[in-house]
């Protein structure tokens, strides 16, 4: 039984006979997308974990792409009715959109077991354990019976618009060069499964021999990494033409470590 952002008003905090609970089926997986308090935030979804495994994409409260301009949201590509619904209850409705995308992407929406979304964002729950990470949505039932303790909370990030799944990587760059410079470092990942866009690893003082780490949620499953493109630039015109390079770049996949 899959709960798609189960309702908060009149249900949260009630006895299990009233609301969704893991006793309702052999396996209950839940997607929470609008779990901010109803008052004052108008959250429609419940926040407590109630299934065998509960997914909190983007932290479970505010979904990327839902804060865009109201006019552009109402005059939506899918039509005025769809756009109006999204404007009124965008976070709440993301749950079924994630679920439908999960059917198309069986390897997508990996949920990482973590104490909180902030801890997940900091990278403390990376990579997946050896038994793997559950997939949020249609294929969550592959993990039926694999979790022995109650109320497993899983965290992940999604895209702002369809297609929603993202794949998480840890990128570590050690710089080479003769002296420090103000600027930024970008990388793009190339692999057997496709290529990513550029992602900013660091912005600020670039110090040769220093190591910089960034968790990247890529819009494609890179597969086996074949190449990494490294780019850097400085913030201001520098007549001395400083040079920087990458001594090493390490890419770690969240899926298999």
What would you note in describing this structure?
The protein has two domains: 1-165, Rossmann fold, CATH 3.40.50.1820; 168-253, Lipoxygenase-1, CATH 2.60.60. Strands 1-2-3-5-4 form a five-stranded mixed sheet. It has 257 residues and is of the alpha/beta class. The protein is elongated, with a radius of gyration of 21 Å. It starts with a strand and ends with a strand. It has helices at 38-41, 70-74, 80-104, 117-121, and strands at residues 2-4, 29-31, 53-57, 112-113, 152-156, 167-177, 181-191, 194-195, 199-206, 211-218, 225-234, 244-253. The protein has four helices and twelve strands, in the order E-E-H-E-H-H-E-H-E-E-E-E-E-E-E-E.
CATH class of the largest domain: Alpha Beta
Biggest sheet: strands, sense, closure?
Answer: 5 strands, mixed
Helix content percent band: 10-25%
Order of helices and strands: EEHEHHEHEEEEEEEE
Kindly state the number of beta strands: 12
- Assembly annotation: single chain
CATH topology of the largest domain: Rossmann fold
Query: What's the architecture of the largest domain in CATH terms?
Result: 3-Layer(aba) Sandwich
- On the 0 to 100 scale, the average pLDDT is 88
Strand content: 25-35%
What distance lies between the first and last C-alpha atoms, to the nearest angstrom? Answer: 30 Å
What is the CATH superfamily of the largest domain?
Alpha/Beta hydrolase fold, catalytic domain
- Number of helical runs? 4
- CA radius of gyration is 21 Å
Structural class, by secondary structure, is: alpha/beta
Pfam families: Lipase, PLAT
Keywords: Cell projection, Cytoplasmic vesicle, Disulfide bond, Hydrolase, Lipid degradation, Lipid metabolism, Secreted
GO molecular function: galactolipase activity; lipoprotein lipase activity
EC number: 3.1.1.26
């Amino acid at each position: 039984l899959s709960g798609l952002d189960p309702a908060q008003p009149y249900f949260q905090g009630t006895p299990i006979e009233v609301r969704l609970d893991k006793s309702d089926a052999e396996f209950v997986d839940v997607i929470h997308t609008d779990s901010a308090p109803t008052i004052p935030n108008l959250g429609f979804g419940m926040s407590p974990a109630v299934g065998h495994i509960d997914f909190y994409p983007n932290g479970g409260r505010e979904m990327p792409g839902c804060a865009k301009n109201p006019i552009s949201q109402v005059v939506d590509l899918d039509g005025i009715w769809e756009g109006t619904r999204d404007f009124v209850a965008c976070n709440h409705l993301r749950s079924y959109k994630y679920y439908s995308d999960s059917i198309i992407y069986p390897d997508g929406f990996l949920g990482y077991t973590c104490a909180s979304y902030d801890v997940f964002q900091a990278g403390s729950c990376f990579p997946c354990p050896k038994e793997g990470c559950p997939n949020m949505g249609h294929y969550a039932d592959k993990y039926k019976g694999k979790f022995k303790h109650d109320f497993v909370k899983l965290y992940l990030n999604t895209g702002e618009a369809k297609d929603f799944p993202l794949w998480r990587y840890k990128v570590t760059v050690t710089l080479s060069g003769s002296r420090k410079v103000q600027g930024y470092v970008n990388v793009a990942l190339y692999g057997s499964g496709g290529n990513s866009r550029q992602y900013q690893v660091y912005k600020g003082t670039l110090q040769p021999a220093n190591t910089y780490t960034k968790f990247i949620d890529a819009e494609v499953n890179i597969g086996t990494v074949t190449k990494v493109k490294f780019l850097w630039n400085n913030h201001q015109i520098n007549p001395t033409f400083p040079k920087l390079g990458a001594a090493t770049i390490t890419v770690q996949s969240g899926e298999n470590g």
